[in-house]
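Board notes (copied after class):
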Amino acid sequence: FSMKKLLVILGPTSTGKTYLVRKISDEMGGKLVIVLLGHHTPDEICGFQILADTVLVSADPYWWREAEEFAVNNPDKFVIVFLDELDKSKEEVQGVMCTVTRNKTLRGKVLPKNVLFVAACNPTNFKGAFRSRVAFIPVPLTRERLLEVAEDHWLAKTAAVSVPVEIAHNHDPD
């Protein structure tokens, strides 16, 4: 279930980005873990290392523990880790999350295959290196735009098939 690039839903505030991801998660019958990136430091995103006696112990971040636990206990269901407010996060957080989402690893630990990552942000200018690692889907959404990226993102194809396009105009604010 690997995706070549991080799928990023791009749109102004209250255009249905979170609603879309919730709807996809509901349609897939899985779990949604929301991470508000604008509120975290790189250490909080990656977890902390704690010195216990003379041993350095890693403490996984809350979102990793929640996603991993559900994925392991429900191997036939998907977990979507929704990285919200990507545009409000620090550049270091963006870089870390691109690496984590691409490799599904954190400090040598690997997430189960049924964990997927999707991000959302308001329109902004990301730097070239970051832009090359993500695929943007602008809202309001069209089925055509979702299908354009479906070759690299089967999750986008699932959304195009199962989620009504009207969500961009008839939704709960995010």
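Comment from the instructor: The longest helix spans residues 91-103. The two ends are 27 Å apart (CA to CA).
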